[in-house]
Amino acid sequence: MSFCQSRSMMHRGAALKVLLSVATLVLMVSAATAGSFTEPGGSFYGEELRPPVSNQMGSEVLDKVGWTQNLNKQIPLDLTFKDEDGKVVKLQKYFGEKPVLIEMVYFYCPMLCGEVMKGTFRGLKDLTFRPGRDYEMVVVSVNPKEGPDIAKAKKLAYLKEFGMEKEAAGIHFLTGENTNIKPLAKALGFDYSYDPKTDQFAHPAGLVLATPTGHIARYMSGVLFEPKDLRFGFLDAGRGKIGSPLDLIVLKCYHYDGQSGKYTLAIMDVIRIGGLITVMLIGLLMVVLVRRDVARTKSQEKEL
Question: C-alpha distances in angstroms, 98 versus 59, 92, 93, 101, 119?
Fold first, then answer.
């Protein structure tokens, strides 16, 4: 064996040792990262909140409140409402091309609804996905006494507060009659109750993400929604119609928890993908080293 060949083998061995060390570090970091992103049990974000309604509301009202998860159920898109401009519209208008975020609130709500709406807008503001371009947002009042005037006033107020006036075309505030409100609430699993004594509605906190065809894809309960969870939720609901190929790869590393409505890193999936990337890098390095050695050997033979 010549000195040059011996030196070449030493270089290959050193390079492989470095690559293996990097691969090991990648897997260790992946595992540590997965642990750090896992939501702790009892997280405020993951709680299904019971509304802080008036003490005058009895248990017979509150016992009817909550979410019933109807994943994959078809939303009746032929239901009709009035938009914030007073135009009669069918839900179908907002479906077909993009995922849809749906919230059921009422605009004169003195307590919970405002917190839910603000939490939603805060989360959406920090997303690269934008309303109208990547998804539609539909807010429906459960109070049949409310009309387009209050819906428009509330929409403009939220858009101004969160600097989203230019995206008004992708955000819709609707009002309607019980003949349409109740079937929508039932389909969404939004169990609410009206208390005539206080003239208030007791209802759960959260939102629903639906596919472009109107099937329920994800539930997120609570009053605060992390941009990460909203982004992954839209990717899931979008059925491949939004997001980049890299987004879809990253999504595979996360697990959706139906109870909390949160996305957490799935450690085994991270390790599998990290291992696959490592094998590909090792293979690529081997090809580069072999080709370099072949070229060097040919050059040395020509010199001799």
Answer: 40, 12, 11, 10, 22
